[in-house]
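Bench log, entry 3. Co-assembly request; chain sequences pasted below exactly as received.
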Amino acid sequence: MSNELDFLSRTVIVGKLSRRDFLGRAAALGVTATFANSLLSSAAKAQAPVKGGVLKAGMQGGAATDSLDPATWSSQVPYFFGRQWGEQLVQIDATGVLQPALAEEWGASDDAKVWTFKIRKGVQFHNGKEMTPADVVATMERHSDANSKSGALGIMGGIAGVKADGDTVVFTLKEANADLPFLMDDYHLMIQPNGGKDNPTEGIGTGPYKVSTNEPGVRLGGEKFAGYWRDDRGFADQIEIIVINDPTARTAALQGGQVNMINRVEPKIVELIKRVPGVTIQNVAGKGHYVFIAHCNTAPFDNNDLRLALKFALDREELVQKILFGYGSVGNDTPINKAYPLYTEMEQRKFDPEKAAEHYKKSGHSGSVLLRTSDVAFPGAVDAAQLYQQSAAKCGITLEIKREPGDGYWSEVWNKQPFSASYWGGRPTQDQMYSTAYYSKADWNDTRFMREDFDKMLFAARAELDTEKRKKIYADMGTMVNMEGGVITPMFNDFIDATGPNVGGWMPDGNQEMMGGYALSKCWLNA
Amino acid sequence: MSSPIVKLIAQRVALGILLLLAVSVLIFVGTQILPGDVAQSILGQSATPQALENLRQSLGLNDPAYIRYFRWLGGVLTGDLGTALSSGQDIGSSIWPRLKNTLFLALCAAVVSVPLAIILGLTAVRYRNGFVDKLISGIALASTSFPEFFIGYVLVFVFAVKLQWFPGISTVYDGMPFSDRLQAVVLPAASLTLVVLAHMMRMTRAAILNVMQSPYIETAELKGLGAFEIIRKHAFPNAIAPVINVVMLNLAYLVVGVVVIEIIFVYPGMGQYLVDHVTKRDVPVVQAVGLIFAAVYISLNIIADIAGILANPRLRHPK
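Structure output for the full assembly:
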């Protein structure tokens, strides 16, 4: 059997078999997707990396207002650049498993309230100084400080204290959290000299590339850092990110050879791009999803029958085909899909006009339901709302669509109006996803889902170190959101990137677009 | 130079400054009535009321509007454009490279388009109502009628993707060799040229044709001068005022109106800089850029006015 798998994985690498087919054939042999994926990556490693050259990425998601301070990152380009010049304590790999980075190993006390990370020795910052546990502590302190306005403030909230102890850093938590190590992968938590307290925007880290050019919103560049501590990444001599927010210009730049890879290929042009010689579409299922969100505490959506009617009135398959052009998968009215660890399969909700009509009748609602949407809610959100309107009409429900301007949508409509379209980027763990948007006291509880029993389960799962028990609790939570929540999830979108000729080493990684954010470090230019 | 001319120029310049002040008030008022609170947009969704209050205090947002206006104006007059709210960078030093890029692109487009438009205009007059005239007008009008993004994409498709002669993205940066820089701006400059060409060409043609009806042109013809000689020596100098006006208007457009072209070609100019900051509600930057755009527009118009007056003896000696 393993010979056959070996053969299959080598076939994928030379391009004779698509990754999806490989996974299918591997599954037929009784191999799990995770194991099959790791086989693939070892086959790719067999293809020797080439050193040297300038590797360039053309990316959407940068602006003149970007900064090098990790605390401020909220868009694609600064985040992606940060992944190349900075490092966290741990890194989540393509299979969702946590790998050591600046921490060599870690462990928890029995009650999961005290976590100890052993910090790697001999790692140099770009300024030549050695990284120490004190730097780690300072970094954590800076991002926990309420005045820092750090994007990681939310996840640092549960930490009561951080202190260095010899080679280790000890985190003391207010409440037990079995997922703490996963939080340390957060891209804001790049370890900086003295935590970046002296000069947050200096862009000094421990990553494979040191910052050589910083023109926010235009061009960001890195040079290979000679003192980098590992040799499985950082192959090109130089990397460059060119900010190209216009999708057509981005595609043209890839075709014209000015960049080697781009992010965010629009689903509707994927079929066209595939025909361009030398260009490869790199799509991978991720955790990001599009949603229609109804406030569970606001009339008329405080009626669960109306919410169920709206859930049954949505044709998810149609949206995946027409909005994502098949580059995605149907959602099931929870924020969780099989890309998450500890996922339990649940019965898929389907478009069902009869059930929708039945629940609608039970709800006693009459008149139309106002759905707000916008171009910025997610790509194709206006079209999606119109398709939803049509499928709802078949169930006897009148959806009225209001198209809101993109400017101000996130401050005036999302999380304010009772029924609107939006998207979520996904989080590394179920705990983080639920804590961010479904915990009753969360700022971003955009469905106003306030259930004490749900919160209790959330805390119980967080403190549970027994994986099987945790999995069971998450399954129950998923069912509760599916049956009673305010989120209507039509689909999970694939990340669709594209690479030009000569790019080697690309591996699917669904944690984020561009190979989980590591594309420029882990890929190389074939001579 | 007689004193009435000096007086006239002084008047125009004073008027321009007054206008600029009025514009500064408009910009300030405009940014005040934008929806959303500045402090709220800086701090985002996770803002606490205390943090909001602290930030409002430190930004001076609690003072009355007129005090904030004069504080801002005072800063501008002393060369201090303030600090960007979003990135904390000094606005003056981050605008300057962008402004240089914008002016460079505008200059490249102007160097090609202005002489080309005038020569084409003159040629069209020479062969008026004939095949050449119609061909020139037709092509110029067609290129103006297409939206600029369409022209931009067509140029990218042909010259960057298919032929690969020029880069499709025009990222320029400090320390870039001049020849590379020129190559980078070829496509955006060509798109801009096509956009502004027709306006200037048609205006040149109309202005000269207007003069061509005059009796003294007939005299020149009777003297036996060639058609081009007449246009060059007698018609063009008398038609120069409206031509200068339309040239200046288009130059101003090349500086302040090229956001779409900048975004298509990923050119790091003022337009993109402005758009980035508008979406972040970065009011000081929006005010600074708005003021610079207004200053460019007003000064180019003053130059047009003055040049028109100098070129026309009747305006030079008002009754």
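Residues 23 and 294 of chain B are 7 Å apart (CA to CA). Chain B has a mean pLDDT of 84.
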